[in-house]
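Notebook entry, structure prediction.
Reason for the run: the old model in the group folder had no record of what sequence produced it. Starting over properly, with the input documented here first.
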Amino acid sequence: MVTNTPNEYLVLSRGQWDPEASKERIQQTIDDFYLWIEAMVAEGKMKTGQRLAHTGKTVSRHGITDGPFGETKEIIGGYWFVVASSLEEAAEYMQGNPTIQLGLAFELRPLELERASAYRASNENGEG
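New structure, fully documented this time:
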């Protein structure tokens, strides 16, 4: 269902640069990315996010481990937010990201703002 109400979508940057790409081509693509995202923010289609450091920890019921792991091909390198009327429109916006051409991929996830409050009783099966 497509609505006219803007929604926010989390964008997770995944992957690694194409190993065949030269350092100069990667740098040019990064420069192109900054121009692209500045334009998207100015047009109200995106909100800024951040790059993520390569170091981190994973916390689970099994304890705390080092991570993310360097051997993972799908490392999350950063996040942003897209403002669009539908997930399809958000995906279309992201197709313009110049870094896709050199191997990066982007996962888009709708934000469930109505269920985001820690002060509202809810559960993961959609009840409450």
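Summary: The chain has one domain: 7-113.
The old model has been moved to the deprecated folder.
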